[in-house]
Amino acid sequence: MNLPSSRRQFLRSSTALIALPFLESLGFRRFASAAAVAARPKRLVFLGLGWGLTTETWFPDAQQPGADYVIPKGLEPLARHKADFSVLQGLTNRLVNAGHQGSTFWLTGANQLAVPGKSFHNTISADQVAAAHFGRDTRFTSLQLDCGTYAGNSGHGPGLSLAWDASGKPVAGHKNPVEAFHRLFSGDDLPLEKRKALLKRRQSVLDTVLEDAHDMRRGLGKDDNAKLEEYFEGIRDIETRLSKDERWLEVDRPKAPISEPKPVLAGYKEIELMYDILVAALRTDSTRVVGYRQPVDTLLTSLDIKVAPHDMSHYHSTMGEKLDASQRRDIANSELLAGLIDKLKAAREPDGSSLFDHTTLAFGTNTRTEHNGDNCPTLLAGHGAGLKMGHNLVLPKDTPLCNAWLTMLQGSGVPVERHGDSTGPLKELLA
Question: What one-character-per-residue DSSP string does 248-272 give?
Answer without folding.
Answer: TTTSPPPPPSSPPPPTT--THHHHH
